[in-house]
Specification:
This protein has 244 residues and is of the alpha/beta class. It has helices at residues 10-18, 39-48, 68-84, 102-112, 129-139, 157-166, 183-188, 229-243, and strands spanning 2-7, 23-26, 53-56, 88-91, 116-119, 143-146, 171-174, 193-196.
């Protein structure tokens, strides 16, 4: 069984590699489900990590339905990962109604060639998982990362088993909540890979900061934060008027 570790830093990736992990999914910001890592992190991981690394291509948090501009950014990031010599891409696109955007996902897969392609946990938002499995296999997706449409892979085990049994070529990789106490269940059920971060929080501040930089109001699955031009224009007008 392949143990894939979702690593959010070079330190995490090094720890996973030293501990015997088979593969890394490299991303940033685990708290929002992961986004594409920075160029600097990509370069450093290529220099220091020898096991296969798959890179998450997700331009922002929130939903998995992207504007034309966001989609172009995703394609550029994939091209960069191909140039840098990574082993795989982790990505995917949905329509706003929870169905698979086959054309855009297929386009990402094509740009990723010859790298492996994993369809990420956007799968856990789809309306018809078995039909989506059929569609993803038809376009050649190598791996599907999913919790079985539940909060954790343990809770989603029934659907995970159905997907595993129905899959012809695509590997169904359980992820979310996988840990040392439950991984044996996935081994016993015949899954070929599991996905986990294995994270612990490490304190590096002597005292807690007085002002939090976390903004819960920005963490939404069904909406994304976008700068409102009217708000900016109002502030700019005020500043310019008062400056005269």
């Amino acid at each position: 069984m392949i143990v894939e570790v979702c690593a959010n830093s070079l330190e995490s990736a090094l720890n996973a590699q030293k501990s015997g992990a088979d593969r890394i999914e490299l991303c940033s910001e685990l708290g929002v489900g992961g986004i594409t890592p920075s160029y600097g992190l990509l370069k450093m991981v290529r220099q220091h990590i020898t096991i296969p690394v798959h890179v998450l291509i997700r331009p922002r948090s929130g939903d998995f339905t992207y504007s034309d501009i966001e989609f172009e950014i995703m394609k550029r990031n994939i091209e960069l990962c191909v140039e840098l010599g990574f082993d795989g891409i982790v990505s995917g696109v949905l329509f706003s109604d929870g169905t698979l955007d086959v054309d855009r996902t297929k386009e990402l897969l094509g740009i990723s060639s010859p790298l492996k392609f994993t369809f990420h946990r956007a799968f856990d938002w789809v309306k018809d998982p078995l039909e989506t499995l059929r569609q993803l296999e038809a376009i050649g997706v190598d791996v599907i990362l999913t919790s079985g449409l539940q909060k954790s892979a343990v809770e989603g085990i029934d659907l995970l088993m159905k997907l595993h049994q129905k899959a012809l070529k695509t590997v169904i990789m359980p992820g979310s909540g996988v840990n040392p106490d439950n991984v044996h269940h996935f081994m016993a059920d015949g899954f070929k890979a599991v996905h986990l971060s294995g994270s612990r929080f490490v304190k590096r501040m002597d005292t807690p900061p007085k002002v939090s930089m976390n903004s819960p109001s920005f963490l939404r699955d069904d909406a994304i934060a976008v700068t409102d031009g009217s708000i900016i224009a109002e502030v700019v007008d005020t500043v310019k008027i008062k400056s005269k």
